Amino acid sequence: MSARDLNRRTAADSGATGGLAPDHTVTDYLITPVPCRAVHLRDGFLRPRLETNRAVTIPSVLDTCERSGRVANLRRAARPGTGGYTGKMPFEDTDVYKAIEGASGTLSAHADPDLDARLDALIAVVASAQEPDGYLYTCRTLGPVGAVPFMGPARWSNLAMSHELYNCGHLYDAACAHFEATGKRSLLEVALKSAELVCREFGPRARHDTCGHPIIEMALCRLSRVTGNRRFLEQARFFLEQRGRHDGRGLYRWADDDGYAQDHLPVREQREVVGHAVRAMYLFCGMADVAAMAPDPTYVDALIALWEDMTRSKIYLTGGVGARHKGESFGRAFELPNETAYAETCAAIGSVMWNRRMFLLTGHARYLDVMEQTLYNRILSGVSLDGKAFFYSNPLASDGTFGFNQGSPCRQPWFDVSCCPTSLCRFLPTVPGYLYAAGGEDIYVTLYAEGSAEVRVGGVAFSLEQTSRFPWEGEIRIVVKPQEPARARLRLRIPGWVQGRILGGDLHRAVGWEGTAADLRVNGKTLPLEMDNGFAVLDRTWADGDIVELSLPLPLLRVRCDQRVEGNVGRVALQRGPIVFCVEENDASRALESIRIGPADVIVPRWEPELLGGVVALEGPEFVAVPYATWGNRGTGAMAVWLREWGD
Questions:
Q1: Among candidate residues 139, 178, 131, the one with its CA nearest the CA of residue 158
Q2: CB neighbours (10 Å) of residue 82?
């Protein structure tokens, strides 16, 4: 029985209803991503970054977890009395878990006996650190209490900031990834033992509380999906329902920010994105999972309202979220400074995860527009092209000296709080799973990249062979190969930027571009676009070798921002397809603040195979602009996304 089939058991089968009706079936998203192992990339844009992550970043992160003492803490926890906790923060165990998750993801696509054996040894260390009842939190096991910030005097006593349940969430994600990649239960058993403890400690008849840093909610949903155990889903829902309910405990807050820990309102009542951006993104992911697996339209209503608030006033053109360094928070509506933007890498990863979930919940492509632009710009900017250095914060302008990146003006190989490097190494192996999805009789093409995929709909296996140089060129060719002639709806995403719509809202808008239709052909015959929720729909009986050709226009968009964003008044940004461009000082003939772009200025896209690994660059009168995702790879210097327009 598959994990998906297991998830469809009733609550009565599992013996735990947790407040849901006993006959309520645990479902899942109506649209299901095609798994990474069934998608094979051959493109020149995403695949090189994923290969660098596999060959360079993940081994480096594993090594650094050893050198920094993170693994040593786990080893000492297995032998109390051999030394105290040496970490600076209580959540450093999670860097090990995220490294395991990332390495496991690569094993799904690349057999690597040495890496497999290394993970086996590392997982044995993790298992040895677990206390007999399932508790696993090395800073408390090793002590002393008070030696590390945010630790409470006893278990679960400072959940606002202790990250105990946050640690559990990353452990569960790592365990699921390792089990899915290898079939081994070694880390899964550790996670199950921990999760059973959590379910005993917290619940309607036990402790009423939740974690100040969300992630355990979506991790418990994943654990429920993998094991078929409904109890974990109920526990995720319980934790969500505790947010904003302060009976018996105080409000979780930081400084003067009531929304910092996402505890300011019950989740159903939230309509404005506030507080710590990473925590918000992870919370919304958990809400979406619960809304899909234990259907609840009130959760969906809240999520749609939150998404609309974010895209109307609190998202950068690059897809970054989180304006303020203080509190790592969203800030006010239209508070989007460029030089001091926080735009944490982890928040961008969370946003991509949330936007995909919103698509899976609703079937609407507008969420994929945000997902694509965030992935191609904001996430890829977080790691250097050689895979060895990282941005924690990601501004849209730099003078080359301000230490926006945890005190540095350039990427760094590691941080005291190194959530971003380890989050990147765990996220990037999952990217192939973002390209295709299926549901009912529908096959969705959600992102475009050369390669192949295998997907089953209506009981028939389909192979899709895609040829494309996207995002540099807009010509896409897909050969459809069903195992037998079969009817299915092939849904091809038509990005919003084709019509000048950017990031799903009206915060950013293209000027001087009225939009034009994409061109669609099947077996050489031009067809009208039959659109539904942002997808061109081809409903037909498919035969082996049918050829679909989609031509997406890639105009050079001049983008303006809502005038309420003070720093962008009188400025314009350049975007081509989903790629946002910036100018670095070495590519400009004058100081960046002196550059002016006029409406008659000719800006020409050119393919530059030797530049930054091969990119399209934009040649203007006084500058050459490069993709934002590649900035900072040729030394430290000034950079700007938003340039002045003539007349200002």
A1: 139
A2: 11
- pLDDT at residue 26, rounded to an integer: 52
Q: Measured in whole angstroms, how far is the alpha carbon of residue 135 from the centre of its chain?
A: 28
Nearest-5° Cα angle at 432, 437 to 180: 85
Q: What is the dihedral of CA 350, 355, 360, 365, to 10 degrees?
A: -160
Query: In the numeric block, which tokens belong to residue 524?
Result: 């050489």
What are the distances in angstroms from CA 265 to CA 57, 84, 163, 239, 530? 39, 38, 20, 13, 41
The tokens of 581 are what? 């461009």
Question: Which among 284, 275, 432 has a CA at the least distance from the CA of 361?
Answer: 284
Cα–Cα distances in angstroms (integers) from residue 457 to residues 26, 433, 447, 500, 547, in the given order: 21, 17, 19, 33, 19
Burial of 399 (0-12, 13-18, 19+ CB in 10 A): middle
Distant-in-sequence, close-in-space partners of 530: CB < 8 Å, separation ≥ 6: 536, 537, 538, 539
Distance of CA 147 to the CA centre of its chain: 33
Q: What is the pLDDT of residue 258?
A: 87
What's the one-letter identity of residue 471? P
DSSP bridge pairs for 548: 478, 522
Tell me how crowded residue 114 is: count the other CB atoms within 10 A of its CB. 8
Q: Which domains does the chain have, with CATH numbers?
A: 436-493+517-551 (2.60.40), 556-645 (no CATH)
Structure confidence by residue, pLDDT tens digits, 150-205: 988 899 999 999 999 999 999 999 999 999 999 999 999 999 999 999 999 999 99
**Length of the chain, please?**
648
As a whole number, mean pLDDT of residues 278-282 equals 97
- The pLDDT tens digits of the residues spanning 64-96 come to 999 999 999 999 999 988 889 999 999 999 999
Q: Report CA dihedral (290, 295, 297, 302) to the nearest 10 degrees.
A: 10
The helix (run of H) or strand (run of E) holding residue 40 is strand 39-41
What token pair was written down for 572? Answer: 């314009």
Contact 120, 182 (CB under 8 A): no
Alpha helices in 110-185 (DSSP H): 113-129, 138-142, 164-182
The reported pTM is 0.95
Residue 310 φ/ψ, nearest 5 degrees: -65, -45
The tokens describing 491, both together, are: 């849904």
